[in-house]
Amino acid sequence: MKFNLSEITELIQYRRTIYPEFFSSRKVHKEQIELLLENARWAPTHKLTQPWFYKVFMEDGLQTFSDFFSETYKQLTPEDKFSEMKYQKMKSRVAKSSAIIVACMKRDEAERVPLVEELAAVNAATQNLLLTATAYGIGVYWGTGGVTYKNEMKDFLGLKPADQVLGVLFVGYPEGEWPRKTPRKPLEYYTEWVES
Ligand SMILES: Cc1cc2nc3c(=O)[nH]c(=O)nc-3n(C[C@H](O)[C@H](O)[C@H](O)COP(=O)(O)O)c2cc1C
User: Fold this and answer.
1) Does residue 38 belong to any structural domain of this protein?
2) What is the number of other CB atoms lying within 10 angstroms of the CB of residue 29?
3) What pLDDT digit, counting tens, does each position of 53-77 carry?
């Protein structure tokens, strides 16, 4: 066997969402983030369109992201729906992170493959990134919803209308115990075998 399957299986099953509330003050280095991104690009990509794009906010860039993220939530939310708690949480989650990586799909200009395939490729790339983080002991929270899918976010990131934001990845070292496994349905629930 070329690779150690039991280690790879353990790594895949060990990956967990780590919320920034559980990040410690230990900083993730830029070189580590680079390896996460380096491994991302080895995902499969139909016609080699390589539609992934990651915008990384670190150091002072974190404040730039935080200001945009929380203030845009404030601007876009009607007064009666606005939650001060959510607004503060958006700020504190960024503040607790060593880096924010925004996972994006940049649409191939010739649209050589269907949209669903481009989204699939980026999500596969992001899983590579998550598994590399797990190998380092680095935690990631993949957040979506709210501001993430708004056009303001695309403008902020310099994306075109056909591009898409697929998630905001909050990156940091967890404090204390790595969380327990979240439940998954067993194999027979999500597979069907045809053998004759
Ligand atoms: C596309 C995508 C979007 C997600 N968005 C959110 C989110 O907005 N808020 C959240 O709490 N978790 C979000 N998650 C993380 C899931 O809640 C998490 O993966 C799930 O609870 C399983 O836990 P695990 O990642 O530790 O296995 C998202 C995950 C994916 C794949």
Assistant:
1) yes
2) 13
3) 999 999 999 999 999 999 999 999 9
Residue 121 confidence class, pLDDT cut points 50, 70, 90: very high
Contact 74/152 with Cβ under 8 angstroms?
no
pLDDT above 90: residue 132? yes
CA nearest ligand 1 atom 20, residue? 17
Q: Is residue 193 in a domain?
A: no
Q: Calculate the CA 40 to chain-centre distance.
A: 11
Residue 181 forms part of a structural domain: no
Name the nearest CA neighbour of 112 among 31, 47, 20.
Answer: 47
Q: Domain range for residue 159?
A: 15-176
Ligand 1, pocket-test mutation among 13, 17, 123, 140, most atoms within 8 A of CB: 17
| The pLDDT of residue 141 | 98
- For the whole prediction, is pTM greater than 0.90? yes
The answer to whether residue 29 is domain-embedded is yes
Distance 110 CA to ligand 1 centre (A): 32
Residue ranges lining ligand 1, Cβ < 6 Å: 16-17, 142-145, 167, 182
Which strand ranges, in their side-by-side order, compose the sheet holding 99-105?
52-58, 99-105, 164-172, 139-143
CATH of the domain at 74: 3.40.109.10
59 Cα: distance to centroid of ligand 1 (angstroms):
25
Specify the ligand 1 atom closest to the Cα of 19: 11
